[in-house]
């Protein structure tokens, strides 16, 4: 049973960045509008996510760390079935089975908070403690009890940079949540939560890019595209700055990339790529987000229509900005 837990955990928890993503999504789900994330040693040594959300009621704490959505999982074969179901209800149980976890949580209705410690899936302590409203989760020594998995991690510096990417995408995806991100005691960025996407881009990527952003906001044919296009002269040498969200989820997608690059075509130098942050919204039935729940791929229903929509509007927006 414990082995199955650890294998299942490997599917949800690949590396520190995936832990951070799950914990921040839980924080946002709990209604938090301020989330602080601090990591040490690339997130392998320590990840702390603190929120001002609902907190967890004392009677619900142990339950939160039990695998619920997929408690039917009893053999290795079932793991394959999970792919199609999505991994909901897996994060805390998975993370706590492969790390040392400390949680401090308090709801507004409770007078005291609780500190709960669980290491490698085993409860260590459950005690009353004074705490502010909200939840703070500390994850230490990721994969300390699964050395085979730990071997697949890259250097702390590289793992830390993956966490940084995830934090940037979360901040860009949630403009009304205030984020603060700290890596090895160094303040990386913070956002105000005032809803201004342009200001978030400024705070993450700096002044050079943000002074010359071209806003785009178009709706057509069941698609809505909203965000900012970098000044055509600001070219990049890789696609890391083609930042796409589909219905509020960060994705990497070839159709969107190609369409964006085609829209920029006359401005781009050879082998260069644009800077863009784009939120695409469309009817959920027109996009399959469950190609793999933990991965960044999606599959669109009508690719040619989407391609034309993005390319045409990017082109038109850039052209009208020039004049
Ligand atoms: P899921 O989010 O899919 O329900 P998780 O394992 O991520 O599964 O979380 C289990 C449960 O723990 C959540 O459903 C929620 O009730 C509770 N929980 C987790 N993190 C928080 C948090 N930061 N604030 C409040 N409740 C939380
Ligand atoms: Mg969750």
Automatic annotation (TrEMBL):
<protein>
    <recommendedName>
        <fullName>DNA mismatch repair protein MutL</fullName>
    </recommendedName>
</protein>
<comment type="similarity">
    <text>Belongs to the DNA mismatch repair MutL/HexB family.</text>
</comment>
<comment type="function">
    <text>This protein is involved in the repair of mismatches in DNA. It is required for dam-dependent methyl-directed DNA mismatch repair. May act as a 'molecular matchmaker', a protein that promotes the formation of a stable complex between two or more DNA-binding proteins in an ATP-dependent manner without itself being part of a final effector complex.</text>
</comment>
<feature type="domain" description="DNA mismatch repair protein S5">
    <location>
        <begin position="201"/>
        <end position="319"/>
    </location>
</feature>
């Amino acid at each position: 049973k414990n082995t199955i837990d650890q294998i299942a955990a490997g599917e949800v928890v690949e590396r520190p960045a995936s832990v951070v993503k799950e914990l921040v999504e839980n924080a946002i789900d709990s209604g938090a509008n301020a989330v602080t994330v601090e990591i040490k040693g690339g997130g392998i040594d320590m990840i702390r996510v603190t929120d001002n959300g609902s907190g967890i009621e004392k009677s619900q704490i142990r339950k939160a760390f039990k695998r619920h959505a997929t408690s039917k999982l009893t053999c290795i074969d079932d793991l394959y079935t999970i792919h199609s179901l999505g991994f909901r209800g897996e994060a805390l149980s998975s993370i706590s089975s492969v790390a040392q976890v400390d949680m401090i949580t308090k709801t507004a209705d409770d007078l005291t908070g609780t500190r709960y410690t669980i290491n490698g899936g085993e409860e260590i302590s459950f005690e009353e403690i004074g705490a502010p409203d909200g939840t703070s989760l500390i994850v230490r020594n990721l994969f300390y009890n699964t050395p085979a998995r730990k071997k697949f991690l890259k250097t702390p510096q590289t793992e830390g940079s993956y966490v940084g990417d995830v934090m940037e995408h979360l901040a860009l995806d949630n403009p009304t949540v205030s984020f603060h991100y700290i890596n090895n005691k160094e303040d990386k960025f913070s956002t105000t939560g005032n809803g201004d996407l342009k200001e978030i881009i400024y705070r993450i990527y700096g002044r050079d890019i943000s002074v010359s952003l071209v806003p785009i906001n178009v709706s057509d044919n069941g698609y809505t595209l909203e965000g900012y296009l970098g000044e055509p002269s600001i070219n990049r040498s890789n696609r890391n700055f083609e930042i796409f969200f589909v219905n509020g989820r960060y994705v990497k997608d070839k159709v969107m990339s190609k369409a964006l690059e085609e829209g920029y075509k006359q401005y781009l130098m050879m082998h260069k790529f644009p800077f863009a942050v784009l939120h695409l919204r469309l009817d959920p039935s027109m996009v399959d987000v469950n190609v793999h729940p933990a991965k960044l791929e999606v599959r669109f229903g009508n690719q040619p229509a989407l391609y034309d929509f993005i390319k045409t509007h990017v082109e038109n927006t850039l052209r009208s900005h020039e004049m």
